[in-house]
Amino acid sequence: MNTNSDRVTLTLFYVGSFVVYYLVTMLITLFPNYSVLRNDGLLVPVLCLFEFAVIYPLYRFYCQRRNDIPLSVLRPGQTLLFIGALFILLLAQTQFLQPEGWLVEQAQQGRASMLILLLTAVLLAPVFEEVLFRGFLLQAFLLWAPNSRFACMLLTSLLFAVMHTQYVHWQTLVALTLFSLLLCYARLKSQGLALPVFLHTLNNLIALLPAWYYAR
Q: Given a cut of 90, is residue 86 above it in pLDDT?
């Protein structure tokens, strides 16, 4: 990146992607069947579907013009190390996390709605969230502060945590911040999004599979 003009243009694209993401999140509340979706436990899955449908094409558009946020490939040794780090983090979380009300309500809707949530959270959410946060947002910070990688990772992770407004316990926000720091480091270490997407997918699967299994 050679000029401030280039950095500004890219930053505007990154910010614009977040504006689109936010608008999609807000517009779904205007759906005629919004309350029905919420009561049936389908609101989050439908929201994931729309967000993926908007964000992933933006990423493809971006990759056709630039190669600084590639998908890359999984390297077995590196992947195993990060899986180990993820399991340590998940184990630590069991000592302080509190049950989140929205997930409890989701489980009460039955196994069918939980299965839909599980599928969207495993197949869709990791992709568009990694594109947005470990892709566009982290890259925006790195454009302006390339020598302050930890600060860029921390800012990205704090924003990742607070934008998950469905969570209300501070313990969950701490866990999300630590999780995002791991994903940010995975993205920088692997020089691509494949590893953080994989870790995010594995995390969501481990978190939601028991809830689906025990749903009534």
A: yes
Closest CA to 193 of 119, 139, 118: 139
pLDDT 10s digits, 44-55: 899 999 999 999
CA triple 63-3-134, angle to 5 deg? 40
Question: Side chain identity at 109, as an amino acid letter?
Answer: Q
Number of Cβ within a 10 Å radius of residue 10? 18
pLDDT of residue 2 exceeding 70, the answer is no
Please give the Cα distance from 164 to 171 (Å, whole number). Answer: 13
* Cα–Cα distance, 61 to 68 (Å, whole number): 13
What are 23-35's pLDDT values in tens digits? 988 888 888 888 8
3-state secondary structure of 215: coil
Residues near 177 by beta carbon (within 8 Å), at least 6 away in sequence? 157, 158, 160, 161
Measured CA to CA, the distance from residue 214 to residue 177 in angstroms comes to 27
Amino acid code (one letter) for 175: A
The Cα–Cα gap between 196 and 80 comes to 13
Cα 175 to Cα 96: distance, rounded to the nearest angstrom:
9
